[in-house]
Task: structure prediction
Amino acid sequence: MSATDHDHDGALEAESPPLHVKPATFAAFAAGAVAMFVLSRFVPGSFPVLLAAVVGALVPGKLGRGDQGWKVRAPMAIMAGLLALFVVRLWPATSGMDIPDGPPPAESASLLSWLIALPILGAIAILFTPRQAVQTLRGMTLGIMLATLALSLPLLRVKMGREFHFNQDVVWMKDLGIHYHVAVDGISLWLILLTTFIVPIATFASFGSIDKRIKDWCFALLLLEGAMIGSFLALDLFLFYVFWELMLVPMYVMIGVWGGENRIKAAIKFFLYTMFGSVLMLAAILYLAYTYGKVTGGVASFDYFELQRLMIPRNTQLWLFGAFALSFVIKVPMFPVHTWLPDAHTEAPTAGSVILAAVMLKLGTYGYLRFCMGLFPEACAEAAANLAGVAVLGGILYGALCAWRQDDVKRLVAYSSVAHLGYVMLGIFSASNASLEGAVLQMVNHGISTGMLFLLVGVVYDRRHTRQLGDFGGLAKVMPIYTALFIVATMASVGLPGTNGFVGEFMVITGTFSSTRLGTFNGVQAAGAAFGVILGALYMLTAVQRMFYGPITKVENRHLKDVNSRELLALAPLAVMVFVIGLFPNIFLLQIRDACARVSSDMSARVEMNRAPLFYQGPPTLIARKPEATKLPVATGSASTALSSK
Amino acid sequence: MESGVLSTLFPAENFSLIAVILGMPLLGAFVNGIWGKRLGNNAVRLMALSAVGVSFLASVVSFASLYALVHASGVTKGEHGESMHEHVKLAWTAWEWMHTTGGKSVVTIPINVKFSIDALSSVMMLVITGVGFLIHLYSTAYMEKDKGFARFFAYLNLFIFSMLVLVLADNLPLLFVGWEGVGLCSYLLIGFWYEKNENASAGKKAFIANRVGDLGLLCAMFLLAYYTGALDWTGIAAGADSLATTTPSTGVHIWPIGGNQYTNFLSFLQPKVPITVTGATGVAIMLLLGCTGKSAQIPLYVWLPDAMAGPTPVSALIHAATMVTAGVYLICRLSFVFVLSPFVMMLVACIGAATALFAATIALVQTDIKKVLAYSTVSQLGFMFLGVGVGAFTAGFFHVFTHAFFKACLFLGSGSVIHAMHGRVHDDVKAQDIRNMGGLHKYMPITFWTFAASTAAIIGFPFTSGFFSKDEILYKVMVNRTLHPMRVAYEKSHFDYFSPPPWLGTVLYAVAILAATMTAFYMCRVFFITFFGTFRGWTVGRPSALAQVEAAHGDHGHDDHHDEDLSIPGYAPHESPWQMTVPLILLATMAIGAGILNAGLFHFEPLNNWLDPVFESASHAGVVDGDPEHHKMWSLAAPGMLAFAIGTAIAYWMYILQKGGPAKKLAEAAPGLHALVYDKCASTSSTTTRSSRPSSRSQKRRRPSTSGSSTPSSPAYRSP
Result:
């Protein structure tokens, strides 16, 4: 039984002989090590980046015939290096962000506009590209998206704090009080980056499976990206509404054209649900602007900060809040208006599902956090306890139980989204500092982990053209890398500590318990949310077992190919981000922190001023403009400064 | 001089050697996980062994540093006038992880990736890396033929890393990282041979049972954050007083939910006095839920017997020596919270005693060697819970320590036996069935002697390690009383508080003695059936030509099952290679000798003195020692020795003198009882072969699932 007796055993040795390093390889490694050492002496902080790049380059193994090594290794090395650079540059020092002393970097006023315009201009450019030039179309799309990603990185150089940054406020329609007003704060910052990060990944992955109407596909994707970024940035309610509706169209088309068998039904359902909410929101927006005009006796305003000044009596406020909240809650979606989501996800193409789950749903949660809580704090406080109950029972628990009983793996992931967004909404309703931070981080987390899950489901769908759990089984034997990636995504989804899911859930749950917004039910809500972690493990592990473990029962599964280079390149950055957020959440939290503190203290201030249960009963009036609000543009500045006193 | 160099290199406040202790296993897991298949088995072996080996060496150095630091620190007078050291730590903050809010006056609670080594975690750390290294070494031979060699070592290294995070963490959320990390590794390793659905199900069951416990830990965390405003050990200790405040409004409302009033038609739900518990009780119950999940206590014990589906070294490392003791470790770590709630302390002790007895009864009749050991682990963990539940934290922890050696040795010994059985019996179920073994002491002398040594330890053979640790627990159960640390303040303010009844100690003592007797019986039963009598696995003799051909193409993994006619003579079962026997010998030595570290009977207690600073505040405040002068020590040790003697004697009579006749008769006389006790592990119908008289129900269930692979048709398949 000595070691050498069995060296020839097993199938594994057949393809990989025992450790056998060629002198040339060894020399290359030694030279590389020396070079890295030397370089790291000259460029401080470059060592981890180089190390990550080398490790990234070495990770891909044999990826099947036809894949040239460097075509995978080079991008892997670059991505690993960039992600390491990201962590190193944003490494939180003891006293907050490690921003060099001296004047803060100049904030280009047009940066955000370029961020919105670039994808939209790209979409227009796509229209003028010939339909037959498939490679050009793909290259252009990806290039524009990567350029947008690069353009969004300067946002990270600024310490966000409580204020809004990169403010651009231009009068658009003067008589109606409509501005083009965009700005970014700690809450929208990471959602913007999530968008610019996820969309290229989803697009890149989709090029493997979408093979008809490439031009239309590229156009829709770019338009969608622009609209989503615009919605996150808009601080003028009219502008927000424009982007909010603009976003709907490409997604509707994506589901309807490139979707599965029941795509038309799912697309119409998706459209009707969201449209129903947004029309109500439009009415509420118009009412708000009109009221503002009436109170000031001047022009109406759609500006977020101006409308924040409106003090609206309780009844009216509840109705307005209801209209806004319904629109956002449909988008999130929360029980009982979540039913469009499983259908839309099941029928949407992979990239559509990824973008829908990772970014579009976040617009619901973001909208609630920014607009409902900003404009109607009293109504939010009044409804919080009940809505939190819905989030726990209907979202976290009911969503998880539904997910558990699904046979279609994509439906399962869709229901798991309902459960995860239940955590986000619970954190927002609780409105304590930690729970708000946790909720914002959980939005990003959900984008990463669910996006990854949808991509993974897409991988296996491309091979087998089925998503039924019963059609799989034993895939771990034929697709080991795929299995490993799926388990990483699963663990992120169930919130294993060390992955991103845990940080968000933990902060939401502890924040909920110390919240004062939920009446006497904070303990129960927190315990219910904690109970969700059991159900999360239950449905995800059941799915993993049915897909990957056990014997291979279906003949078709016996020779499935493992992930190819394209899929690996799409999945790798997400897998890395799972651990980056899980291990170094402070990189993200330090930017989110003060903005969340602002939201919760603003809300507390208003609620303290107008005590429950009646709140404010008088006619609509104006209160002082928030100190964090951006400066008014010159054109209307004189008019409203005169009115700014209460 | 050496310690001088060490303390300058690694100051106590920035003890970065911890990075090596933790980093090496993580590196091993990463390298083996990603490049393992490409590197080949030799490199994987090298990486895995060096990772844990270096980690062990670094642990030894850290231990030495801590020892030097402890002796350099101030000495205070203890309770009984003995000298006692301060509670010192070697700490290292890696980076700031996150923060949350909590506390009565809402404060920000920073949560850092901070590790610390104190007396308690240093011992755990040595056990984990030391026993872990031996088991890694053992596995290099045991898993040699397996296709998932690299994957196995990646998981195993990841486990060592997670376990180290668990014990070295300086705050509860970071401990939770390790806590769930070991759960994940356990899940992956139980389902290591994932092509069998039962194994995958067992893994899932373990993970979900653990998750139920994790719910408790999560709830405990937000309660602690709320009440104490801190989540690190020092902060929790500092704020622990606010957990036990007496005003009802600061307690945890149990019913009505959230302290709400039911006024309308639901008013019948409204109790006269709202049911509240103190924060301490709430936290401790939630922590206890977590601990029962991880340490397989009632009610969450169900996963551990199924976890035996994993490879045997995994059972030894995770499901005997290290991970399952994490619950006991957590209770020890937060002992100062637990003593604030005598009710929960009583609950811990009762759960421990009940589990010890209950699991022992199941172990009496199991025929799968690993199942017996699994239930015995559950039972021994019950003893540990019993120990910490009566406030004997050192005794409970000492049992963790000795149990790690003897149970690891037992599991590895059983693995050695199974390895030998796999020479010709290729079905996992049959290879692990003690009815197919017998007489192995002739063929496997080293395995026999080491198994004998560790059996002696677990059944409490006088002056082995298990004797000292179990005896200490039994003694403390009888003499200790847990009282509320705040009793004086409570009485002043006329606040009703809970005190455990005075007869509780006697009852628990009786239960524990009964469980100890059963332990002696079932362990001797396994030992006698496996190693004495005649070999029943196959006919031993000169192999025929056919069998030689069969043996020559032995390139099968553990998952290949081809039936072999076992009546054809074959080579005798062989002793295992040195990679497997050396760990056995070392562990057996420790199983015999480790008791000397805390030989209370001889008033020689280095471990007790070492750990005293950790438990000082807890035991000083809430535990009354009924026998401070140790007069009753020897008289209370007598029943323990008697339990050992009776259990062993019955087993000797039944299985050596009467060759198993009485056991068979007993099973036939009371088939219902036998089936009931046997089927307590009925949750997985397929991994166990049914007893000689299976009920029709279980037969029906078995047929479709095993599909002929384990039908008891071979002549070798006799029941004793």
Observations:
- The beta strands of chain B are 75-77, 83-85, 90-102, 107-117, 252-255, 275-277, 480-482, 623-625.
